[in-house]
């Protein structure tokens, strides 16, 4: 009997054993007392809350990010008591409490000017794909069961003990983003979870995406059409600016949701080329590469803010700075357009043309001083010009002459040229 099958089986067993050992090591690192990783001011605030609400636990993102050693933006807690009782207890101890979302069971304690959201444990009574009707519960597992992903369903009590009902610690260590329970049902409860899946995979995922999740997303993609465009753009923005954005876009393409999200048409190869050049984590810049056509239609459909729509349009406008331009020509462009917009145009040009000289061009742009036209209408009047509409025309002509010359002429030179033009006027 040949020894090859046994040898191959042994290799597979060793590989599996090594992977499991690595995961156990990551788990041990993650589950050291999480509270030791908190900033002292935040820990002190939590100790004040725990003195009043000893059953409160950290929940959601704070637990997840403390485990992997990432900084945490917000601290959310959950409690088994109803919100009115929570407010009463905190106020009795002289704390500032704001009823930020009583209908959802949420109040906010403000300690040292920092907010700490405290939400009563809930279970879903009814969902319609966008909103949920909830009722209070004192069952921690029921509350965890209504959360989206296993890595977001953990909680940590005042002793630093992590409560994990759905194996979120293992998934976090393994780089797996899984829905809590049945993926299809969770998406039907709230279709935004489709986009949240991709966002969280971009931050925490490794290897192949969860097969059950991808199947559920593919079959439920049309549910995204029932979401508000504001919610879609909020998530899409974070996906595009997040880590592994290219891998995530490929996954979204594989799942068939890009045409639903971006019916204007997504140009993934151009986006991939932009990412290959290590573009900045700028959601609008990356979107301009992904959707180079009909971007104005997209901005209206997704209800961009005026500033976002204007910036997206400016990125895709002309003129584009090119590597063979002289410093004088670049100063000409800088006199009318901000450096960040010119840099964005160069990124998009580089992505479309695979131009490796784009980096050098942006370095030149950064070194150049932004030129400021040194003349104003008051200068002409002080020099003896008669007021009137011709003053504005002279200024415009002088500014054009100043730009054509590379924006180097000083105030006196520009004034002399302006006076010469003024004298030549009829």
What's the number of structural domains? 4
Task: Please report the number of helical segments.
Answer: 22
How many strands? 9
Biggest sheet character = 7 strands, mixed
CATH class of the largest domain: Alpha Beta
What would the average pLDDT be, to the nearest integer? Answer: 89
Query: CATH architecture of the largest domain, please?
Result: 2-Layer Sandwich
Output the CATH homologous superfamily of the largest domain: Beta Polymerase, domain 2
Radius of gyration: 29 Å
Q: What structural class do you assign from the helix and strand content?
A: alpha+beta
Q: Determine the oligomeric state from the structure.
A: single chain
| Low-pLDDT segments, ≥5 res | 1-7
- Indicate the overall shape: elongated
Family: Belongs to the tRNA nucleotidyltransferase/poly(A) polymerase family.
GO molecular function, one term: nucleotidyltransferase activity
Organism: Acetobacter pasteurianus NBRC 3278
Cofactor: Mg(2+)
